[in-house]
Amino acid sequence: MKDYRMLSFLDLFRGFFNRMKIDYPTMRKILQVKLLLDSRRVSTIQVNNDNIKQNEDKNYFIRSLPVYTFIGLFFIFFILISDNYIFSMSFVFGAFMVMMMASLISDFSSVLLDVRDKVIVLTKPVDNRTLNMAKVLHVFYYIFMITMAMMLPSLITSLIVRGIGFFLIFLFLVIVVDLFIIMFTALVYIVILKVFSGEKLKDIINYVQIGLSFFIMISYQLIGRVFEFSEVFDISFKPTWWSYLLPPIWFSSTFELLFKNNRESYVLIYSALALLVPIASIIIYIKLIPTFERNLQKLNEADSKGKKKNKINNIIGKIICSNKEERSFYNFATNIIKNERNFKLKVYPSLGFSLIFPFIMIITSIMDNGIKGVANSKLYFSIYFTGLMLTTIIHMLRFSDNYKGAWIYNFFSVNHANVYRGTLKAMFINLVTPIFILISIIFLYLFKGRIISDLIIGYLSLLLTIYVLHKIGDKVLPFSETYGTTKSGNILEFIKLLLVFGVLIGLHFGTTFIPFGKYFYILILIVLNKVAWKYGFKEKKVGSYSQENVSLN
Amino acid sequence: MESIISIRNLNKSFGSKRVLKDINLEINKGEIIGYIGPNGAGKSTTVKIMLGLLEEYEGEIEIFGKNIKDDPVKYKKRIGYVPETADIYDNLTAREYLTFIGELYGMEYEEVDKKAEELMELFDIREVYDGRINSFSKGMKQKVIIISSLLNDPDILFLDEPLSGIDANSVMVIKEVLSELVKQGKTIFYSSHIMEVVEKLSDRIILLADGKIVADGSMEDLKSQLEGSLESIFNQLTGFNEHSKIAQGIVSTIKRGAVDEGL
Predict the structure, then answer these.
(1) What is the nearest CA distance from A61 to chain B, expressed in angstroms?
(2) Transmembrane segments in this chain: where (chain A) (predicted)?
(3) pTM over 0.90
(4) B60-87 confidence digits (pLDDT tens)
(5) What residues of B are in contact with residue A126 (Cβ under 8 Å)?
(6) Residues 6+ apart with CB under 8 A from B203
(7) Is B258 exposed, middle or buried (0-12, 13-18, 19+ CB in 10 A)?
(8) Is residue B18 part of a domain?
(9) Is B260 inside any structural domain?
(10) Distance of residue A26 Cα from the nearest chain B Cα, in angstroms
(11) What's the CATH code of the domain at B100?
(12) B262 in a structural domain
């Protein structure tokens, strides 16, 4: 079996793991198998019949890393902007932590909350602690790779501009932050698992994910508020009680303490927190592992009470799906979207972000201009930000734990157009629409009734965007692939989305200058949607997923 | 006789639903236990608790004379398990999977590898030892799972529907193997819905219904109280006598309407 470099690196810490009562050789073994499994994602229906695909997952992950490096380039700006380390490094750590938390809760929650291993591993002489540590390190491996990719530009900059000491402390703190956020997320899950149970628990987990997305975005907004910009280059830091709750400020203070000899009491307290809180979180976490694993089982406990049949959704299905086959897939997709735990674990955090993105600019503006100032602005265009997560969600639709069930598509030789139509509509109604309605209600309160037509335009534009993204993206039958541990970087898809939005927002904005332009535009959008959704799914017969390509391996 | 598993006053609930009600069991070394009961009676739950997969329960369980809560790890070294749902990392090859499992049992790689390969040979699937498990047929996969449960030369084997998908020839081999293992003093805990196999194989049958033990004894014991095959005893004890009525209902429900006749 392949020996991974990470494992040889881990061997250095062998003594540490032994002291924590972890069976190191066993943990290493489990980790090795996990990494091997990650490199072998397969799908039931293989696109283009290529056999290379079996080993592609790892490459997918490696290929997504430059995207993070690209994002990391922007951090350089923060490092160079000021000699006030609390100020500059707070932004670096803030942005970094937001990115990592987002990735952690959406991509890696399912690894932390995995219960499938239990039957295979825990029936062997392996204890909870060892299995759990393997899981955490599995997550850490990916988080670490992403971190290094993202922080590479700023680390190099700090080495050149601030010297080797600064660089080493920076590197060290970045790793501490990684550990801290993993422990923090895991601790949140421990509490949830402890407090709730049964069907309620499964729902709560997803709301917690949305809550966490909210939490990290809001905390990030707060960082900027800690500082006062009296003049352009004169930045002063004002500690307030809540600034003690912002981890990025703790970490940035360490630089102020070590390299500026700043001995203000608040700097000392922050720096102490930067070291003590992560250590405490690790200790608490290790203490709580047995509770964690025990309560994880709750996620698997069958609740025999069936959920009530969703009548409203059936009615909506009847209205928006023109034929029977499409309606079947609408209902089918609705059920999977609403019930499959892994799907929800990976998609709900994105929903959290699409719920909060529209408000980021508005909140800043309210703080500067007050509610009145906002009411007269055109900031309601930020409703389009709701759609920023569409690429991710559409991409996730292809995955399922029960991907082998995809044989039904070919057995019943269904029309693929109906499958896509039904599934995308189900996604639009069940995931996008509730969020859109919620935001609309708040927007109507902020901007008053004058924006109703704009909201309608926004809604219709999102629907059209979904169609366009499907049309120009690669088409994979829904729920027909296994989840990889990592998400492939779909930056290209994201750029496509931005282009589509650019055009739609431009048109929308243009119509606001023409009398009755918006109403004509609504009509045009309705017609476009009608035509696109009705006729636009026809496929050429030479589809890449014709029947011959179906294989189980 | 030497008691190897001892369960006292075992109770387990999921939420408000009680799935095991005061189970008491003494199992002796060298017994083959047929553990049977209708779906949802609590068979798998009992096994999962004994294997430490479910940790919250009331009552005491001793395996090899020690309470499993005191040392939840060590006793598993001497246990083999074939789970009901064929849980397996099926993106691994059989070699990778089996050596992994062997190493979890604390064996050396070379030792497991050799043993696993020989067992694959004996089970007539040597040629796929380096193939991915997800390309295997159901029976081949099941054989791999059975091999994985035997690698550590366990003293107690928990088998949950172990023969599903396996061809008749191999079934004969496996049954023979089980009888042989018992002769060597191993204990086997066998759950299945296939009554003929249970009847032939087990020297003691435990019937669970609705979370309670409703019968416990050898086939002769059961026959002295009730008539017929194990299947009919099973039906009598679980209070089931409507099979022909239900079957008729099903058949008449399946029947197509006149509209579809042309298809």
Answers:
(1) 18
(2) 60-80, 86-106, 139-161, 167-192, 204-223, 267-288, 347-367, 379-397, 426-445, 451-470, 491-510, 516-533
(3) no
(4) 999 998 898 888 888 999 999 998 877 7
(5) 73, 76, 104
(6) B31, B32, B218, B219
(7) exposed
(8) yes
(9) no
(10) 6
(11) 3.40.50.300
(12) no
